[in-house]
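This part of the workshop introduces the protein records we will be handling. An example says more than a description, so a record of this kind follows:
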Amino acid sequence: MRSITYGEVSFSTMCQLIKNYIQKSRNDEYKITVGTDSQNHDITKVVVVVAIWRVGKGGIFFYDIKQVKKITNIWQKLFYETSLSIEMARKLSLYFNKDDKEHDISIHVDAGEDGASSSMIPQIVGWVKSCGFTCNTKPNSYAASSIANRYSK
C-alpha cells in the first residue's frame, strides 16, 4: 500500500497506522471506507483505496495500484472492482476484529444512478451487503469516485 503521508507500507503497517490514527482522538467519530476504481489505457489500471475519515476533521488514506489485462465490459469491470474492495474490507475486518474492537467498514462503489452502470446497482449493493458491509454508491462513494478515480487516471 502507498500513502502520501507515510510512503510505501505493508498491509500490517497500514493497519497499525490506522489504529494509531484512531487512538489519537478516541472521542471523535471515524469512518473506514474501501473503494476501487479503474481506467482503461493499454491495460486497465486499478486502484484500491482505504480511507479513514475523522468526521469533521479530515483524514488519511492508503492506495494500491494494479495493472491487469484491459477490461472493456462495464459489468466485468465493476464486478472486478467490487471484488477487490470486498477482499480488502475482509482483510481489514479480520485484522481489527482480532482485538475484539468493532470497526465499521463500508465499501464505496463507483456506480451511480445516471451512468451506464446504474442497472447493476441492485446486484452490487446486494452482494456487498451479503458480505456484511454497508455499501455506498455515487454521489456518496468518495473513496471510489474521488480518491481512487484520481489515482487511476
About this structure: The longest helix spans residues 74-97. The mean pLDDT is 94.
